[in-house]
Amino acid sequence: MDPVADGRIAADGRRDYTLLLALFNTGARVQEIVDVRPCDLQLTRPFQVRLFGKGRKERLCPLWPQTAKALRSHFAETHTEPGDTDPLFRNRRGQPLTRFGVRYLVHKYARLARRDAPTIGAKRVHPHTMRHTTAVHLLQSGVDLVTISHWLGHASVETTNRYTEVDLEMKRAALAKASPLSELDPSATNWRSDASILDWLEDL
């Protein structure tokens, strides 16, 4: 095979890994992630990303060290400068990835994952599935619903107290609890029998 083509495929794979890791870490809506610019990222401690949600409402989301490391590698490989103001994730032609491009990538890797994880079966996996998965992971890690709602930029949740302020430090504490390397809290699974939480997950 053409070594240049092989390298391009490998580079695409590293970009895709970084994109999917960022999606899972942040629980971002797909449009929020394709809109991320290098200038929205802080890849020195404390690691964080600025996301723009519906109505251009801004929120900060902390990043795992693994996510920051992958993003720094992506910066280096694509010769990206931290202050750049163009969208970070691009296709082979150098154009910004679109929502449809991300949807294609998620479907692609879901198909590949079925080889090693047959339990995925015929389930439909799409970018919004990643957002749902993030919410469930945070719940399983024992993070409270109010913090998760603010994390995801889900302002219309009935269970969110209008007077409760969730600052970035609270989100960082949640991040530590929900690290991919952390042990899940076995006592934190009672949410599965809570109809209001299940309805909330459906509404994400």
Task: Considering the chains and any ligands shown, give keywords for the structure.
204 residues; 6% strand; 8 helices; mainly alpha; globular; 3 strands; hpI Integrase, Chain A
Cα shape: globular
Structural class: mainly alpha
User: Within the largest sheet, what's the order of strands?
Assistant: 1-2-3
Range of helix content: 40-55%
CATH fourth-tier homologous superfamily: Intergrase catalytic core
- Mean pLDDT level: 83
**SS strand fraction:** 5-15%
Strand element count: 3
CATH topological fold name: hpI Integrase, Chain A
CATH architecture grouping: Orthogonal Bundle
Summarize the biggest pleated sheet: 3 strands, antiparallel
Cα end-to-end separation? 44 Å
Topology as a string of helices (H) and strands (E): HHEEEHHHHHH
Low-confidence stretches: 159-164
Number of helix segments?
A: 8
Radius of gyration: 17 Å
- Determine and state the CATH class: Mainly Alpha
